Amino acid sequence: MADRSRIEWTDATWNPLAGCTKVSPGCAHCYAELMAKRLKAMGRPAYQNVIDDKGRWSGNISLIDSVLEKPLHWKRPRKIFVDSMSDLFHERVPEDYIQRVFEIMIKADWHVFQVLTKRPNRMAGILSGAQWWDGTESDARKHIWLGTSVENQKAADERIPQLLKIDAAVRFLSCEPLLGRIDLGFDIWFDPEYYEGNINKPRDGVVLQYKDLLHWVIAGGESGPKARPMHPDWARSLRDQCQWAGVAFHFKQWGEWHYDGDVIKERPQTPVTIVGDQPVYRVGKHAAGRLLDGREWNEYPDVI
Fold first, then answer.
1. What DSSP state is assigned to residue 107?
2. pLDDT at 1
3. Distance (Å, rounded) from C-alpha 168 to C-alpha 145?
4. What is the number of alpha carbons within 13 Å of residue 230 lying toward its C-beta?
5. What angle do CA 203, 129, 100 make, to 5 degrees?
6. Are strands 279-282 and 272-273 parallel, antiparallel or unpaired?
7. What burial letters (b/e) apply to 197-222, b meaning 16+ CB within 10 Å?
8. Nearest-CA neighbor of 148 among 87, 77, 197?
9. CATH at residue 19
10. Which residues make Cβ contacts (< 8 Å) with residue 77, sequence separation at least 6?
11. What was the pLDDT predicted at 204?
12. Is residue 189 domain-resident?
């Protein structure tokens, strides 16, 4: 399958953009930056200006018009991660180009598009009031899922409220790399003061459920040569919050590190002490796997 992805929660990637800028701790060891460096060395035109001489994001963005219509030619339905090599809502992406990307997604309604950004404030600002979004029948865009990356509590506090301002069939979080314990704030979302002016404000006496606001949470540890370890209780906490609220939970991976004795047995062990004096060991992504308390968590929103 063309553009097939190894990412556990999607089937394929579609990159009508290239290039980015780091904005928070979750960006520190960006896999896309490393991949873009390789693509630049291979001579790919779209990646020549987005990586600087030190192999880092330059801040430039390449608009790749030639791939805009790719999803229209993929006839078999699939889940498509949009812009794994960029951020569709980066400050340097023109609004008219964002509109063109969304128009392709709206048209290719046999797919599911997963749009993930670290800039939900810009996403909310552009989509709220845009005729090509707000003026589109909800059933015509239920296959477009909108999400934001949330790696720690600071990111959660800043980004989740912005995401919840957007009228979308599915809103989701990617808590990866998970760098600390996160309280998703289910207990404050129904505060009347919070709902003042919010597009998802309950009306006519109808009380929304938590799962009507947030529909999906992905969690996972970091991989790669400089991967930071994840405490198992951080992942458990997210799972438990989602179960309590009726929100779909997907555990992607442990990353390079694992805490379990059965996993680390017979392997080189490099312990590190993190929250709660929990020793974890660098065993590699494959060995660490993606079992959380003995099972895989592969939940998706009910719309699938």
1. H
2. 38
3. 7
4. 35
5. 135
6. antiparallel
7. eeebeeeeeeeeebbebbbbbbbbbb
8. 87
9. 3.80.30
10. 110, 111, 112
11. 43
12. yes
Residue 304 domain-assigned (yes or no): no
Peptide bond just before 192 cis, omega within 30 deg = no
Report helix, strand or coil for 257: strand
- Per-residue pLDDT for 199 more than 50? no
pTM: 0.91
Which pairing describes strands 112-117 and 79-82: parallel, antiparallel, or unpaired? parallel
pLDDT at 192 over 80: no
Quick check: 254 and 288 in contact, CB under 8 A? Answer: yes
Q: Is residue 234 part of a domain?
A: yes
Exposure b/e, 133-151, CB count within 10 A at least 16 = b: beeeeeeebebbbbbbbbb
Condensed to tens digits (0 to 9), the pLDDT of residues 168-179 reads 999 999 999 999
Instruction: Report residue 268 as tokens.
Output: 């080189």
Q: Which residue has the tokens 């805009």?
A: 68
- Contact 54/107 with Cβ under 8 angstroms? no
Which residue segment(s) compose the domain that 77 sits in?
Answer: 12-288
**Residue 51's beta-bridge partner residues?**
57
Q: Which residue has the higher pLDDT, 117 or 213?
A: 117
277 located within any domain: yes
What is the mean predicted confidence (pLDDT) over 264-286?
72
